[in-house]
Write a structure and sequence with these properties.
By secondary structure, the protein is an alpha/beta fold. 61% of the residues lie in helices and 7% in strands. The protein contains 23 helices and eleven strands. It has a seven-stranded mixed sheet with strand order 4-3-11-5-7-9-10, with helices on both faces. A two-stranded antiparallel sheet has the order 1-2. A two-stranded parallel ribbon has the order 6-8. It is elongated. 45% of the residues are buried.
């Protein structure tokens, strides 16, 4: 009876926790389950279409999973189970009908790059904690609506990152592709080190491995050109493995994955351990790369889901899909051993194969799981050079000459970001390289955005505003300074410098600062404005603000700057009559000067077309 009561208590507690979690997710616009919505009105024809698409996708997912496990430096079974688990779990929560989750080249090579830079860390031991952290970060990010920020990441950074990662993958796979031995000592851990060692070891290459590599590459691209709808990845893997078996019978042995044989008992990895003495150390060591893997996974998922949804004429929620991605990685932390992301190739194939609902993903995952159980003993016959050749083929397909040309020719900033990010991917671990590129792109953007501009205007003989055409002007006692652009922290110093340059006129008595088109004031710009007011008053001058819209006025009010400026010296802008605040500011300036009329000029940066008012 006690056991029964305890089970009832646990059940009620679980129900209560599920209810609280569902309510919390609902308040953050995250649906706890999406699959029932996708399956409304599900018919036999839909099941037939999804089954056909799931089978087609599984024929690509199974061999690709093995290849990406090789890229990551992990056992083959980790990639296969990741493809199965992620494809089964993701549809439960995803808003996309067509995306297929599993191991991908970008995340796989990031993992390899991290452990290559930290050779004392054992990848298999660290993976459960790493995958768990990735899942938690993705789920937390979805609740915080982090996916909405994906639109602010420069596409140039991603093109450079993918290009550099593809080059790295190809160079690292040259070792098994050529069948060369790396000699004595530790294997090189850098791009240039690996390339140098491969070149020096070319005289000792294995001709049988080279033959299989050439056969695999030729078969892959031949099928891609002649039979693009055929499952070329699986076909080349099977045909090349049979050729490798034949070469072995002819006394031309090649290296195979004989150590990679697994059965159902090997398919569940060690669970994340939070009770061991080194759990805190693991968290500290893996947190940085977990953030990078989660970030890249989010970008891949967001881009592919939106692309397929646009083609199929429906909408997706990036944060809902990020939640799905996080849930899949949490499942992989306990049932697989490798981070999952949105596969661009498998998702596109799923859509092109006629998938109608996320059931196609679940069918693909189930087939991968069955394939793992049935084909596990046959892994020993797969030559390492064949999988290396297929990885090289995938890497080559990632390099887009057109996108590189666009990045290098569009603007100087894009060219700099591309070159620096690409170089970083070859010289530092990938989880560092991607944030290097993002940081540089943000810095260059801030540099562009932080340039408020000024244009000088004056009243012509007809009494209308007109641009000053020559330098022979009277020095006005009142100058109206139009502020155009952002006045956040990056622009504050430049803004203050420009105003101080205007104040160099000895006849200038009052500046009317027109903030109608100013945006994004922050604490830095407010402090710069306060210092400017104090300097001007110490020199017997005054500053008046006109055209302040609601967002600008709120910042000035909340920061206490209105009290420093004086409430009589600020005039709110009006959308209905944008000129009235400037007129009232002029009246106030005349009142301070003690005159009825004043010689007035409008100041604006000549790089921008002037607007009246």
């Amino acid at each position: 009876m006690n056991l029964r009561r305890q089970l009832q208590d646990i059940g009620s507690m679980g129900t209560s926790l599920w209810g609280h979690a569902r309510d919390f997710l609902a308040t953050n616009q995250i649906e706890p389950l999406m699959l029932p919505r996708h399956l409304r009105g599900y018919r036999k024809a839909d099941l037939k279409a999804d089954s056909r698409a799931g089978l087609t996708t599984a024929l690509l997912a199974f061999p690709q999973a093995m290849a990406f496990a090789v890229v990551a430096g992990l056992p083959l079974v980790y990639g296969i189970t990741c493809s199965a688990v992620a494809a089964l779990v993701a549809p439960l929560f995803s808003s996309s009908r067509h995306t297929i989750l599993g191991p991908t080249n970008a995340t796989a090579f990031m993992i390899f790059s991290f452990f290559a830079a930290n050779p004392r860390m054992e990848p298999v031991e660290q993976m459960p904690m790493l995958v768990f952290l990735v899942g938690v970060l993705l789920m937390l990010g979805s609740v915080l609506r982090v996916a909405d920020l994906a639109q602010y990441i420069s596409r140039t950074v991603m093109v450079a990152y993918i290009t550099g990662a593809a080059v790295q993958m190809m160079v690292n796979q040259l070792v098994p592709a050529l069948g060369v031995q790396m000699g004595d000592g530790l294997a090189p851990r850098t791009f240039l080190g690996t390339l140098y060692r491969v070149v020096t070891e070319i005289p000792a290459l294995n001709w049988a491995s080279l033959l299989l590599t050439v056969f695999s590459v030729a078969g892959y691209f031949g099928l891609k050109r002649l039979r693009p709808n055929w499952p070329r990845f699986a076909m080349v893997l099977v045909a090349s493995s049979l050729l490798g078996l034949l070469l072995s019978r002819l006394h031309a042995p090649v290296a195979t994955f004989s150590e990679g044989v697994f059965d159902w008992g090997d398919m569940i990895p060690p669970f994340p351990d939070f009770t061991s003495w080194n759990a805190a150390a693991q968290f500290s060591q893996l947190f940085g790369v977990a953030v990078a893997v989660a970030f890249v996974s989010m970008l891949e998922s967001n881009a592919m889901a939106k692309s397929l949804a646009s083609r199929a004429n429906y909408r997706v929620d990036g944060n809902q899909d990020m939640f799905s991605l996080g849930a899949s990685n949490l499942a992989c932390a306990y049932l697989s051993g490798m981070p999952a992301s949105n596969s661009l190739t498998r998702s596109a194939l799923n859509y092109e194969s006629g998938a109608r609902t996320p059931m196609s993903s679940m069918i693909s995952g189930a087939l991968c799981l069955v394939g793992a159980l049935v084909l596990g003993p046959f892994i020993q016959y797969v030559p390492k050079s064949v999988l290396a050749a297929l990885v090289i083929c995938v890497a080559l397909s990632l390099i887009s000459k057109r996108q590189i040309r666009i990045c290098m020719r569009s603007t100087k900033s894009d060219a700099v970001v591309f070159v620096v990010t690409f170089a970083a991917t070859l010289m530092v671990p990938l989880h560092v390289a991607i944030f290097t590129g993002i940081g540089l792109s943000v810095m260059l953007y801030i540099r562009k955005a932080s340039q408020p501009s000024l244009v000088e205007y004056t009243f012509n003989q007809e009494g209308n505003l007109a641009e000053l055409e020559n330098a022979d002007r009277q020095h006005p006692s009142i100058s109206i300074v139009h502020v155009e652009g952002d006045l956040f922290f990056g622009a504050a110093e430049l803004f203050r410098t420009q105003i101080q340059r205007t104040c160099s006129d000895p006849n200038l008595r009052i500046i009317i600062l027109r903030l109608k088109n100013a945006r994004h004031l922050d604490a830095t710009s407010v402090m710069a404005l306060e210092e400017l007011i104090k300097v001007m008053r110490s020199n017997g001058r005054d500053l008046i603000v006109s055209g302040a819209m609601k967002d600008v006025y709120r910042v000035l009010r909340d920061s206490g700057l209105i009290e420093v400026l004086g409430r009589d010296n600020i005039f709110m802008g009006s959308a209905a009559n944008p000129n009235i605040s400037t007129r009232n500011a002029l009246k106030r300036a005349q009142e301070i000067l003690g005159v009825k009329e004043a010689n007035v000029q409008i100041y604006y940066d000549p790089r921008h077309q002037a607007t009246k008012g």
